[in-house]
## 1
Amino acid sequence: MNKGNKLYEGKAKIIYETKDKNLVIQHFKDDATAFNNLKKAKVEGKGVLNNRISEYILTNLAQCGIKNHLIKRLNMREQLIRKAEIFPIEFIVRNIATGSLTKRLGIPEGTVLDKPLLEYCYKKDELQDPIISKDHIYSFGWATNEEIREIDRITLRINDILSGMFRGIGIKLVDFKLEYGKAWDNETEKKEIILADEISPDTCRLWDVKTEKKLDKDRFRKDLGNIIQGYQEVARRLGIMPEETNISEVNFGKATSIKFKKK
Ligand code: 5GP
């Protein structure tokens, strides 16, 4: 599938058009940003790892009946995906209190929540993605009541599936962010809600079960070092990273070769 014009460039990904109006190519960059773009760096190898990890997770979710935008991975950095009109909302799920929840409400770090907590943020960089209520969503027409009900249901199901999947490889799924969109369905000739974007250590907090070592983007946000090694560890435990893979990191940088198991 040939790449056409660039349609959109975000902080970590680029979207290109294709000859098919319903399909686009998602390219994973090595750029890492945090704190509303105040902190930036190139983390060589990150795009390749996120592409592979997200492909693995979205493929597994599809097998569990969760409709998502992934058609197939094309190469080390690119996926063919369904074009979707993205809701301007970040759907956050929390199982353990950390990050902005602890800062905003003073909930002690590490508190295990009785049930998954759903939060909504307005996707607006200039406003630093503020937290919003469902009423904001309905008042400003960002999604309907029915759409949010469906998305909440899918989100909780994803949390169940992924919590189990990660627990099985010794990782706690602490929290994560999802994005959804509406895409054209050729069969029903209607738009349908699908999971979009990516699910990777960039969008999830993943802690080792025994040591609580962070294996996600907090290594970058909090200057913990060994960012790529964290992502690589997630890929390795998921069984999509061969032992001989060689990624070294110097000052958030310098990756050498990354090879993945052939499917
Ligand atoms: P927090 O609100 O604590 O900063 O983030 C909650 C969860 O959502 C974390 O797993 C975090 O990685 C994810 N998240 C929230 N906002 C964003 C965002 O703008 N980009 C990415 N990649 N992840 C986000």
Note: Residues 248-259 have pLDDT under 50 and may be disordered.
## 2
Amino acid sequence: MEIINNVKGTHDIFGDETDAYDYVESMMKSIAEIYAFNGVRPPVLESEKVFSRGVGESSDIVRKEMYTFLDKGGRMLTLRPEFTAGIMRMVVQNKLYATNELPLKFYYLGPVFRYERPQLGRYRQFNQFGVESIGNNSPYSDIETIALAYTILCSLGLEGVTLKVNTLGDDESRDNYRKALKEFFAKHIDHMCEDCKQRYELNPLRILDCKVPEDQEIVKGAPKISDYLSEASKARFIQIKDALEVLNIPYEVDDGLVRGLDYYSETVFEFHYKSKAGVDYGAIGAGGHYGKLMQELGGPELPGVGFSFGIERVVSVLKDDNLLKDIKKELDVYIMPLSEEAMLYSQEVAVLLRNSGGYKVDMCFDKTKLGNMFKRAGNKNAKFAVIIGEDEINKDSVILKDLAKQEQEEVKVDKLIEKLDKYFDSEEE
Ligand code: HAM
């Protein structure tokens, strides 16, 4: 029979990689909890409108990368290409802004889908962890969000992360900037790529993200947003930079950073990290402030700020820099039945240790040599072996072997948990 392979741009996660993802995700979640964010789980499927209105018609995501299809009921649906717009749909639909203290502080984790060209660090199905802080316009809400992202990356052991920040200003700043860009690109646009021609009409800011080398050369001479900021936006950005300094969060201002999603205003940021071997996976996380997203989705005018990490990229840099070595899985007890007759008794001991003792227990189901069973116990990083033969069954006991010390003794089954508790308690001291 023909083998069926995974879909292009997707990847399976198994073995040590699963442990790596679990470790990274639980670190991210626990730090978000410390920052008083609460978990939310919006659906993977949304109406296409959530993203065309939310992320914006001029973004590459909406123009080219969405998995959009008609379902059997004729609804135009999209597999979410990001979380932020879907979370805002949830907030508006459930009027969460009206019944809760603001800001609403949410974190989330799960797969997202973008029809991009697969390459290093770029998948069509990948996982994001992120947060959104919705309903407060203070620059300190932006700062809290950036501090959370930075703390997560430091806690994972990444040193020398580059935080790039910029401001896109308020509506007035961006309107003036768009006009200036239109004027500048007017004389070049005929020689630029087809995408840029469309971007010029839809939103000239998007031209700044063009990846075509010849167009990038032209972009280098384009006006900078910093020259078009309103006084209020300038003042806000100064507050952001001052706060980053006080909080000892190193950053660089990148006045070319505009982000590819249309909902941003004021502060935007990206985290970059080059692994020690010099591999660059692109931004490992990014985000910013958004002023009008809630309105675009039919809600009141409440701003928000958030970021998302690409879990695949974070796991890749940790793996490259050998920062995952301490997360090997361990087993408390590996049970070794010496015969078919010992299987049932072994199962009883396993259930007792797991359900009453709370121990992590695995057992061998194969009729194999004792030496092989010890090898398996070693591979599973087991602390103890429990060996069960006919003698032990007759005496309601087991042989308990400390695999590090290589010492063993016979222990009555009703004393086994007590014995293990004593060992693990002394380990903790
Ligand atoms: P984004 O920059 O589109 O922002 O994606 C966030 C992160 O997802 C990127 O920095 C990158 O690490 C990862 N990522 C993006 N595309 C891929 C891909 N094809 N394969 C693997 N990883 C990828 C957002 O999604 C915004 N929703 C962030 C945000 C939240 N802004 C405000 N709140």
Note: The first helix runs from residue 16 to 34.
